[in-house]
């Protein structure tokens, strides 16, 4: 290639580069010219001086913002180089555009209030008096009204504390001549809180240990601020020991570390006890099934009583495991909260960390010598425990109860709890601990009626193949078993998972 051709090619390339530069410069002027007061700004911070944040708007001039406007309550700057600054263009001068979080007196005129209303630009104001239903606020040299409900995102108990405060407000109502101006700080506070919540949630993960501050407490737990978002420490997650009220352990304003258990949308579940050593694990090395242990009764429920075996380790005494000598309707009949009782450990479930206890396991079993206590066909005087739709339960001796089936109860009798009755034992089922009772003076008619099908007695016009197997005083086994089955189904037996779910 000749030198002349090479020179011509170089000049063409330089010309093209110059044209591209001029085009980009012109575009930047046009982009800059489009920026005007009130525009929303989201631009990167390119430099930080002693007093200003410098941001790049992508045009000829950089913009700057006062550091004080983007500092927290303690005066700490919340932004760094590279972060995105959000605000509004509040003025333009020889140094460039001025960006602020809100309009201030030094950058506005009367029309600016109207512009702020139409463009939803925050304005700075100072609360100077309490008036009926709200506050008088100086907004850029004009008087505005802020309702009590719009001064804070939280309920206001003391209006006087806002006097003299300078806050940012949104103009939510403005007449043509700006004589009537209504403002709201609450809307801005809620927007800011929502942004902080989104940022905090984006950084949060299940399993994180975070520092927080107790903001408020309810009957079911404590709400903790963990940096822009509130999480709930449920009362069951405050301590391994049973906590009735969060106020018994925590205080409003208390700072603490918590663990994130779950995140569901904007709801965050936190735990204090997850950061504590689990006392159940240590207790397992010291206790085993069959051990006898002295424990303190903590809480009484209709299904049983919870007792503390060791600090933070609880077990359940089911109501069915409380007494051999009597039927217990409620644990309060024999126990009180705070009582110390001797129990036997029936079962330990290491997977669910639940322990089943028994009082009656340490009591003598009256059925061991049942033949000496209860005699067949011999009258005895007993006390009515209860009357149910399938029979009457009668105490024969301490710890021994018999059933007078409903099919044998005379229509003329109305048994009440505590009544003394004379009956006799017609059958003893040692394996299932069941005793069947009957009257001592049953008539032949009653015996014959007992031999008829139950349904036939109620509906004589129908024929049923199923028959009551009671055949006199002793009665048949199938009918007795049915009566006892109904009785067993009415009680609250201890099953594998209930009522441990209430632990």
How would you describe this protein?
The protein is of the alpha+beta class and 503 residues long. The chain has 5 domains: 1-30; 105-190, Nucleic acid-binding proteins (OB fold (Dihydrolipoamide Acetyltransferase, E2P), Beta Barrel); 204-275, OB fold (Dihydrolipoamide Acetyltransferase, E2P) (Beta Barrel), CATH 2.40.50; 279-362, OB fold (Dihydrolipoamide Acetyltransferase, E2P) (Beta Barrel), CATH 2.40.50; 371-490, Nucleic acid-binding proteins (OB fold (Dihydrolipoamide Acetyltransferase, E2P)), CATH 2.40.50. The chain contains 8 helices and 25 strands. The chain has helices spanning 3-34, 110-119, 186-203, 279-284, 370-373, 444-451, 454-458, 477-490; strands spanning 40-48, 52-55, 63-66, 84-93, 96-100, 123-131, 134-139, 142-147, 166-174, 181-184, 209-218, 221-225, 230-234, 255-264, 267-271, 292-301, 304-310, 313-318, 340-349, 354-358, 379-388, 391-397, 400-405, 420-429, 434-438. The strands form 5 sheets. The protein has a 5-stranded mixed beta barrel with strand order 1-2-3-5-4. It has a 5-stranded antiparallel β-sheet with strand order 8-7-6-9-10. It has a 5-stranded mixed barrel with strand order 11-12-13-15-14. The N and C termini lie far apart (92 Å). The model is unreliable at 28-33, 454-481 and 483-503 (pLDDT under 50).
